[in-house]
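Job type: complex structure
Entries:
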Amino acid sequence: MDTPPSKPSWSALVERARAESAPDVDVRAALRQQILSEGAFHRSAPVSPGILDEILALARGLRGRSSIAALTLSVMAFGWLMSDALGEINLLVQLETQLLAGL
Amino acid sequence: MSELPPGEATDLALVQAAQAGDLDAFDQLVMTHQATISAVLFRFSSQRADLEDLVQETFIRAWRGLATWQPDKPFIHWLKRIAVRVGLEFFRKHKRSPMSRLAADGHDHLTALSCESPAPANDEAAQLLSHLPPDQRTILTLLHLDEMPLAEIAGHLGISLANAKIKAFRARRSLKKILSRHGYSSF
C-alpha cells in the first residue's frame, strides 16, 4: 500500500494559505507619533520668516568684504534649510536668489 | 468631483484636509484603508511585528507623498502600489522568510511552522517562494496568495504587462524546481 505524500501540493498549500487572514492591525497611534516627530518635513510645516531675515542680514553684513564668505554662508544656509524644512523649496529658492543678488 | 463614487469622494476630501495638515483627516484615511493594506502586506510577512512595520511604512510614505496622488485614480490603488513597493523592498532586505530565519537559527522547521506562526500555510508557501529572486517572489506572492490580477501587479511594480507575464512564467518555472526539490507536488 502506497504511503500518502507527507507534503501537500502547491495548489492545496496555496488554498489553505488564502484562508488565513491578516490579524487586525491598527497603526494610527504609531503613525501619528511618527508624523508629529518629523512634522518639520511636511510641506505645510511653517518655517519662521525671521529665519530668512536673519540669514539675509548676515549675508548683507558680509557684502563687499568677501564673496567667498557669502557663498559659504549660502551653502551652509542651504544645508540647514534642507535638513530643517525639506519641503520649503520656494523659501530656499528665494533665499538663494537674494543671496546671489546681494553679492 | 460629483461624479466620483461616495468612498472616493470622501477619500479626496480627506486627502485635501490631510494635505492642509489635518492629522485627524489622515487618521480617518488610515482607519478606512489599513485593513486592505494589511491584507496585502500579510502575504509578505505574517509576523505581527514585521506586518505592523510594513503597514506603518506604507502610510508614512503615503503621508509624505500625498501631493503626488492623482485623484483620477482611486486612493486605495495608489496606496496598494506603495504597499507592494514596501513589500518588495522587504523581500530585498530579507532574502529568506521569517520561518527560514528561525530554521537557520536552529529551530526545528516544522515545529516553528506549527507552533510559532499565526499563519502556518501562508508561511510555508512564503518559505518556498523565498528561494526566488525578490521581483519574481513578489509577483507570485501577489498572484497566488493574494489572488491579485497580473495586470494590477504590473501596474503596482511599474512594469509592462508583457514583462510581468515573462517574470511570472520564469518564476513558475523556478518554483516547480523548488517544489520538486522540497518534496512537494507541483501545481
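Summary: Residues 43-102 of chain A form one domain. The interface with chain B takes residues 5-11, 13-14, 16-28, 30-32, 34-36, 41-45 of chain A (CB under 8 Å).
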